[in-house]
Structure formats: C-alpha cells, structure tokens
Design brief:
The structure is a single chain. By secondary structure, the protein is of the alpha/beta class. 36% of the residues lie in helices and 15% in strands. It has twelve helices and twelve strands. The strands form two sheets. It has a seven-stranded parallel β-sheet with strand order 8-7-6-9-10-11-12, sandwiched between helices. Helix 10 links the parallel strand 9 and strand 10. It starts with a strand and ends in an 8-residue tail after the last helix.
Length: 318
C-alpha cells in the first residue's frame, strides 16, 4: 500500500513498513494546508498523522484513500464525520502515550508547588531569592482530583499514590471495576470534585460535550489557591476564566495545550494566557518522549498489518 506519513515517525518503523513492501512517502513538515496538495499528488491509500490536521479538503483530495491513522489517542484534529461519509476509516492508537502524559502531569504538580520555572528564570537573570522560593505547600497528603479516568488518568493515579496523595476521580463513563487496584475515590459531580481538590488535572477528550467544560462555573467551584493542570486539549478550557481565577483566587495552572496553537513545530505564539505569572506552560509535548513515540509507531504499523491480514480496521473511531 502507498502510505503518506505527514508527521515525524521513527526511521526504524518506516523501515518496518518498507520491509512489508509498502511504499512510504515521508513528509513530516506538512501542515493543514500543504497536506491537501500532497494527498492530491501522491494519492495514498493510508495517511499517518500526529498533530497535522486532516480536513475535509484533504480527504476529498485522496481518491484512493482508505485509512487515516492518528498516531496518538485524541483524534479531534481529523474530520471523522467527513471521512466516514467517504468510506475512509479513522483509527487511533489508544494507551500508547499514557505514561508520557502522566509523567508530564506529575512534573507539573511538583513544578507548580516548588515554583521551579520561576526559580530557574530568576537564577538565569542573576537573581538569588531563596527567601521567596523557600515557601511551598508540599504535595504529600494533598487531594488530587483527576477528571477523566481513561488510560492517562489511571497512570496519573498510580504515580500520585506514590506521593502520598489522596486521589479523587470524576468520570461518568468509567466502570468501577476498571479502577480495581487503584486507590481512587469516585465523585459523582464535577463541581463537588473541584471544591474538594487541592490539585486538579484534566484527561478527557475534546468534543462537543467537553468544549469549554472548564469555565467560570468550574473555576468558581475550585478552592482558592488550587492548582489546575491541562495536558489534554486546549479547547477544554475557557482560558479567560482560568486567567481570572489565577488573578482573583490565587490559583496556579500548568498548560501543555492551548486554544490556539501554531500549526508548525516552530513559530510565533500569541496566546495571552501565558502572560499571567501564575501560569506555567510547555509546548504540547505531553506525548513527546522516545518511549511513547516508539510505542505509538508500533501500534500504527500493527493497524496497517491488521488491515492487510484481516481486511478490517483496528481501533476504528468513526
């Protein structure tokens, strides 16, 4: 099959595809706009993407297109409804980057509590301020509220337990047996969870039901001085409400994702949310570890193998 890879993809897994007699076109710098002519010119049967958006125009450009693989869990960057209308399957790679995102989340928790980013910024500026930074709450015994108890949320819970944290969880879709072995207490209301938690972390998909879920009502329910972490999707959080909560309630936040992100790997970032000194940020790197990328690439190849051997689509989401 002809496969267009429109994002970074490990060389060893490209070779694995070639060894299986697939034709691989590797174009990791494609974006939402340049993907369309690339699909039109190459007419792939399969497209593999990570963050590159796959629009209806890109799908329409592929007359031979059968399958779009999202090399990751979330697939809100792909027009799944239009793909289905064109008999194009969309498959994702669930669970493959869970540990990487969980690790970043725990890093955020410690960074917010010990103000690691501010410490570093002052030292690089030649400022010694031990008096200011010697004050921290500590996370032992604190209550962590995990919103979304899928693969990532459960991995966060495992690690938070090792820190001696009390763990609450909210997920209307999770079955209690899924949490067997985890020290997580389920709370049946999002706002009750917010009111009880010292630290809140978000691990839910971005869809019509979760768009701007974390708004003024949610942040009003949070404790003064609570920490808030979003390493899921930018559209989940109403950023103006978060900024207001940081200003008026002394909350601190850490974000790996934003309402508007540059389409390319490098570019200008103009989101004013990062102008607030109580908000830390990273560059949408939650899944970007060597371990995670190897795991997600292995599953992407498995999805293609499955199609060849069985004629069906593994982990289809549309």
């Amino acid at each position: 099959m002809k496969i267009l890879i429109a994002d970074s993809f490990p060389a060893n897994w490209q070779e694995a595809l070639k060894e299986k007699k697939h034709e691989v076109i590797y174009s990791p710098k494609l974006d939402e706009n340049t993907l369309v002519p690339a699909v039109k010119d190459n007419q792939p049967e399969i497209i593999i993407v990570r963050s590159t958006k796959v629009t209806a125009a890109a799908i329409d450009a592929g007359g031979k297109l059968k399958l779009i693989i999202r090399a990751g869990a979330g697939y809100d960057t792909i027009d799944t409804k239009h793909a289905k209308s064109k008999n194009v399957a969309v498959c994702n790679c669930p669970g493959t980057n869970s540990i990487a995102v969980a690790e970043l989340t725990l890093g955020f928790i410690l960074s917010l509590d010990r103000r690691i980013c501010d410490n570093t910024a002052d030292l690089r500026a030649g400022v010694w301020n031990k008096t200011k930074y010697s004050k921290a709450r500590g996370v032992y015994g604190r209550t962590l509220g995990i919103i979304g108890l899928g693969h990532i949320g459960r991995e966060v819970a495992k690690r938070a337990e090792a820190f001696g944290m009390k763990i609450l969880g909210f997920d209307p879709f999770v079955k209690p047996e899924t949490l067997k072995g985890l020290n997580v207490t389920l709370v049946d209301d999002l706002y009750k969870l917010a009111a009880q938690s010292d630290i809140l972390t978000v691990h839910v998909p971005n869809n019509a039901g979760t768009k701007n879920l974390f708004d003024e009502k949610f942040f009003n329910a949070c404790k003064d001085g609570a920490y808030f972490i979003n390493a899921a999707r930018g559209g989940l959080v109403k950023e103006s409400a978060l900024v207001e909560a940081c200003q008026k309630k002394g909350m601190r936040a850490a974000l790996d994702v934003y309402e508007v992100e540059p389409a390319e790997g490098t570019g200008k970032f103009e989101d004013s949310v990062m102008q607030n000194e109580n908000i830390y940020g990273t560059h949408h790197i939650g899944a970007s570890t060597d371990q995670a990328q190897d795991s997600v690439s292995e599953l992407a190849v498995k999805i293609i193998d499955w199609l060849v051997l069985n004629g069906t689509y593994l982990h289809q989401v549309n």
